[in-house]
Amino acid sequence: MDKIIYRGKTYIKIKQDWYSDLGAKQPLKIAVALDALFHEQMLKESASLIDMIDQGRHYATIGQPKKAYDMFLSATQLALEQQDINQLMIAVPRLVQVAINIGAQEDIVTLLKQSENKEHIIEQPHYRTALATLYLSLDQPQEAFDYVLEATLLYRVQKKKMSDEAMMVWSTLKKQYPDIYKQVGDKLKAEKIES
Q: Do 36 and 26 reside in the same domain of the chain?
């Protein structure tokens, strides 16, 4: 439960709704202003990762992609800094989705590539899948293929089920870039020969 003072009155946030200190649910106009104030406050105070991710989801749901992007970006940066893999793997796919929606893919590619070879990230298939998704949205299918193949091999080695995001990248490659998709069979055959 978060409290904010706005125009001399105290408001309380419960889940994604705002209430006056007397318990009256606030109309949308006031709620939007309170959300904006809350957004600024969270970014300044470096709120918890979970709160940032929840707030980012809320912004995405109510159609405020730029604010959602800011929250997911802050959450991703904090998770990278804290080496919190669990929260990172929640924040990154959401950040990628919002970045694609607002056309900020290249900034996120740059951010993710800075950390891709760090010890706590190098074996994370979701991270590789995020990069594949970004490259595919930038119309760079060869890079997308390389990253999604790495992710797929990591899923296999770790005996994990492939993510929906990775399957969507494969599906898009197969439909829109059949020549590149054909490389899958070639690479897998080469692996079997080497084994």
A: yes
pLDDT at 127 over 90: yes
In a domain, 108, yes or no: no
| Token pair for 46 | 């470096």
pLDDT value for 189: 61
Same domain, 59 and 83: yes
pLDDT digits over 89-115, tens only? 999 999 999 999 999 999 999 999 999
Distance, CA of 133 to CA of 144 (rounded, Å):
7
Question: CA-to-CA distance for 129 and 92, rounded, in angstroms?
Answer: 10
* pLDDT reported for residue 149: 92
Residue 32 is part of which domain span? Answer: 1-45
Q: Which two tokens stand for residue 86?
A: 């669990």
Query: Using one digit for the tens of pLDDT, what is the confidence trace for 166-176?
Result: 999 999 999 99
Pairing mode, if any, of strands 17-20 and 2-6?
A: unpaired
**Residue located via tokens 């994370």:** 124
User: What is the pTM assigned to this prediction?
Assistant: 0.73
Give how many domains the chain has, as a whole number.
Answer: 3
Separation of alpha carbons 92 and 114, rounded Å: 14
Please indicate, yes or no, if residue 193 is contained in any of the structural domains: yes
Residues 6+ apart with CB under 8 A from 121: 85, 88, 115, 127
